[in-house]
TrEMBL record:
SUPFAM superfamilies: Pentein (SSF55909). It comes from Flavobacterium hydrocarbonoxydans. Keywords: Transferase. It comes from the Bacteria. InterPro entries: Amdntrnsf_FN0238. This is Amidinotransferase. Pfam families: DDAH_eukar. GO terms for molecular function: transferase activity.
Amino acid sequence: MKQTTNAIVMIRPVAFRMNEQTAVNNYYQKVLDGLLPSTVNAKAQQEFDTFVEKLRAVGVDVTVIEDSLETDTPDSIFPNNWVSFHENGDVALYPMFAENRRQERREDILDTLEDKGFEITNIMDYTSAEEDGIFLEGTGSLLLDRANGKAYCALSPRADEELFIEFCEDFDYAPIIFEAFQTVDGERKLIYHTNVMMCLGETFAVICADSIDDKKERKMVLENLKADNKEVILITEAQVNNFAGNMLEVRGTNDKRYLVMSASAHQILTPKQIEQLEKHAEILSSSLDTIEACGGGSARCMMAEVFLPRS
């Protein structure tokens, strides 16, 4: 199994704003005072378009889908939470915490991929769990080490333990379960998505180990990463707050590896961390300030990786 892919899906926003339904447990979201919704969306579109251009310029195969005004989907720019694509032709659909995010799941996006020559053989649909108030938000909640058959999950209101284990059984991953916290107004609160505090590359892992408060859990996670010969690059909670954990390794022209992140993440890394990362992949960063502030997500969340076979 490959850990990285050359193909990704991205959704271009049409009505991007801060989603009040997700703000209840995503503490990275902020209200941008004094900006009209149309201005926020225009800024997000500009950041999105520049980001896509940079990815395509290095040879990443980006399928851009336009969001629709028919549904109120302020977070549609983050497709990795509702779908994942797998090498055996499986597609997984995930249950979402915010009701207005459930409308992001669109069959026509799967049709578009099939039109491009990707093969979908089976759909694993976990969405009925929503009726029981159980959620697992795609590769936001679970980080897949595809090459080593492990899945990492920081439990939260958006990542249910039993459903995560069910996913691991269905897709043949060994589950690695822990809790990760951030300090909010002096209190330790669960981090809403695993992919803000951790990134898995082919030969490295970026992780905020300090966010795993339980020492046994922290040791267990780090030991798993080291056992798979990944260079572990530690980041701080302050760096997580600037989305330094929300990165994704992709492949460009000639299979060259790129580590994709936002400008704010790139800027908060130390020279030593950058040097460590650049041994593994070239850094590609783009300004996502509006998207990060209103959406509480960053570069990784915007890219749904496509591992499907091509016909």
